């Protein structure tokens, strides 16, 4: 009697199906035949088979066409994984490659024009498909979406932001003109012209010492209350409008996170060791909202720090600072004065439509020194 055929649910049959389902070694894969062999013996048998020999004859007739086709399929599959996996986010190229090769029927890189992932990433950057960046961890890529609908949506968003910015500029310009006009009018009212006393020589000076008790008091002898007892001056409509605009701007731009690239900060935690505590560094990259990669100024080390372990740095008078929080967030200014009693500063905006405006009472935590590279 012959040997009984193994069943479908035997351990060996289940093991073979598990092996066939997963990924196998790349050196035992034939791209032309799209066949994956389990071991060296199986691959050797496949290479000597008649079907493989026929595929080699077809490949030999026009090898460039086959390599080009394989390269195009590999690029399309890789870009699909990048587009669906990370959209327009910055991601490690090797991570996308690992996602791509999870498909058992994917096109292997050794059948394309590229011999390494680095060469393929350079090709993506050269053809304008992605923004590429080489770091110590490897190549980072960012997908460039060239879909007409996406481009149209981005242009509409930019136009909307530009219109909002133009409206803000017009409102600020109108307020400044009103302030200047009010200041000019106030100056005209308060200006007093002093003239020389002129008196005719024939005119007599009469002094009445017997004035009746019921006479009205002279205006010049009226009692003037001290400044502290005078009623507070009522604010004009323009001042009220300006105060409301400042409050709205402060509310909209006041946020919990204040980290910005390019500013100088100080490490205030001991969790990273005494080597970094109290040392200053420059923020090279902002991670999320409350994390940052800081390059230390003295040692050049790069560390990843949370916002709560950092504090702002106040430079010397005349140095350039960046306003990191509050109504004038993201504006560059020069430091004019430091008030140590109130823990605040006076700065002068040096960029943009508000150039030259003086801001008083800016807290220490709302501005930081801007690193000059």
From TrEMBL:
SMART domains: Kin17_mid. Pfam families: C2H2-zf_KIN17, KN17_SH3, SH3_KIN17_C, WH_KIN17. Belongs to the KIN17 family. GO terms for molecular function: double-stranded DNA binding; zinc ion binding. PANTHER family: DNA_RNA-BINDING PROTEIN KIN17, KIN17 KIN, ANTIGENIC DETERMINANT OF RECA PROTEIN HOMOLOG. Residues 54-180 form the DNA/RNA-binding protein Kin17 WH-like domain. Residues 158-192, 234-261 form a coiled coil. CDD domains: KOW_KIN17 (cd13155). One of its GO terms (cellular component) is nucleus. This is DNA/RNA-binding protein Kin17 WH-like domain-containing protein.
